[in-house]
Amino acid sequence: FDAGTSRDYLIDCNWALYVENYLEEFHIPFVHGTSLAGALDYESYRTENYEWGSLQLGVAKGAEPAFRPPAGHPDEGERIAAWYFWLFPNLMLNFYPWGLSLNLVQPLGPARTRVAFMSYVYDAALRGAGAGADLHRVEMEDEEIVESVQRGVRSRLYDRGRYSPRRETGTHHFHRLLERNLTGGRA
User: Fold this and answer.
1) What residues pair up with 69 in beta bridges, in sequence order?
2) Residue 157 above 80 pLDDT?
3) 0.85 cut: is pTM over it?
4) Which residues, at least 6 apart from 46, have a Cβ–Cβ distance to it below 8 Å?
5) Which neighbouring-strand residues pair with 117?
6) Which of 109, 116, 128, 168 has its CA 20 to 30 A from that of 146?
7) Rounded to 5, what percent of the chain is helix, strand, coil?
8) Per residue, what are the HEC states of 154-180?
């Protein structure tokens, strides 16, 4: 456990908007253009959905630090910069070559959320490079966009849109799980 890089973030948004942001892929090159996007091959980025969660696979760009899955592994032959696991409703497990960033999203009110970041470092020498190099900066970028979306959702001009079949499969899956659990399985 690394107490020096573990912290809580308080965000003016609904917890579900924070989870949506984590799960959708569109924002990576736009919101994280000079941080996270520099380490990831966006065209190879993908989401796999499972019964109670999803996995986003961030393939490394160039010589960025990466996992090299062994023979027989589903991701064999790929250089994985990060595995981003989300477990319904509010747990995120982000695996980087340096270790694990565990994020717990906690609703505090309709438009207030706490996200607890807990870092577990396996290889400190890799801490400053690759997809997990500057998690605080990435979090600040995410907070700015999520708080902006919260303001937009409250606007009288807001109207829902369609899901992108390529970049919002995780978001759609989250919404379906949320609906199923809020309706007692009748959805």
Assistant:
1) none
2) no
3) yes
4) 56, 57
5) 7, 103
6) 128
7) 30, 30, 35
8) HCCCCCCCCCCCCCCHHHHHHHHHHHH
